Amino acid sequence: MAGAGLIAIKRRMKSVINTRKITKAMSLVATAKLRKSRTSLTKAQAYNSKFLNIFDEILKNSQGKSIYTSEDHGKKLYVVITSESGLCGGYNVAIVNKAVELTRNDKDNSLILVIGQKGRSHFKRLKYETAAEYVEVPDIPTIKEANTISDHIIELYKRREVTEVYIVYTKFISSVKMEPEIEKLLPIKTEEDIAYTQEMVFEPSAEECFDYLVEKYIRQQVYFCLTSAKSSEHASRMNAMDGATKNANDILNKLTLKYNRIRQSSITQEISEIVGGAEAQK
Predict the structure, then answer these.
(1) Which residues of the chain have pLDDT under 50?
(2) Is 138 part of any domain?
(3) Structural domain includes residue 202
(4) pLDDT tens digits, residue range 246-268?
(5) Is residue 14 part of a domain?
(6) In the prediction, which pLDDT does 196 show?
């Protein structure tokens, strides 16, 4: 019986060792992707900060009416950024729950534009109406993907199929801290109390510049949120795989201890039987 128990434990140990190899490799891959993604995010943050300063200045000086600033009642569009694959802890659950929380009381007037395979499967299971589904977004997003998504958003807004646009994504704070975030993209809210230290001359007028820059603003925000979400995804996967590797080590230690105890007990029993047999022959 002891031999059968030892064989079963050895099989489990082998299975855990193989699983540990996979989780450790996935953690290393996620770490490498996170390093590259953070480099892109740092550049996007610097550009985004400068762009928003200029955009706010034009927004303040633009006095004309625009479709991008007009308030209206209608459907709301939620752009939800999820991952393409799993094994990243609670990353997707947190962002989907955030979107569900926002739309729960007004589901009939809410449209979802989902990015990522995992989000698509989640919202399909929850029977949500989707305006579009974008999948196979690369691990390091580019302007190309952001422009494709942004053009669709702008087209829906211009046709007045939606009157408000929000983007729901995971904000990257550090490799151990990520938070679900929501930002309103459209309509643009004017700020009257912003103070500026630099006067700007507009050519053509501030109003014309505003309409042109709004589309640039949408593209920039979508790109920035995509990059932040991807960095958060890689960090979540790295942490999840590190945790899985640690759990595998803990299980392996317990199985090793159990194996040694059974083996020691078996050896002790065999010695006792040999000694007992020897004494019986005297």
Answers:
(1) 193-197
(2) yes
(3) yes
(4) 999 999 999 999 888 888 877 77
(5) no
(6) 47
Domain carrying residue 147? 48-239
Amino acid (one-letter) located at 250: D
Residue type, 80: V
Which residue, among 259, 263, 267, 261, has the nearest Cα to 16 in the 3D structure?
259
Give the total number of structural domains in the chain: 1
Consecutive H or E run containing 132: strand 130-134
Helix (H) or strand (E) holding 173: strand 164-174
Ramachandran region, residue 78 (left: φ > 0; alpha: ψ -120 to 50; beta: rest): beta
Q: How far apart are CA 118 and CA 42, in angstroms?
A: 26
Q: Which helix (H) or strand (E) holds 224?
A: helix 206-280
| Burial environment of residue 221 by CB neighbours within 10 A (0 to 12, 13 to 18, 19 or more) | buried
**What pTM value is reported for the model?**
0.84
CATH of the domain at 215: 3.40.1380.10
In order, the DSSP letters of 68-121 are TT----S-EEEEEE--SS--STTHHHHHHHHHHHHHGGGGGGEEEEEESHHHHH
For 140-150, the pLDDT digits (tens) are 999 999 999 99
> Phi and psi for 57 in degrees, rounded to 5?
-65, -45
Residue 82 included in any domain: yes
Paired with 249 in beta bridges are none
Q: Which of 97, 149, 103, 88 is nearest to 122 (CA)?
A: 97
CB 79 within 8 A of CB 157: no
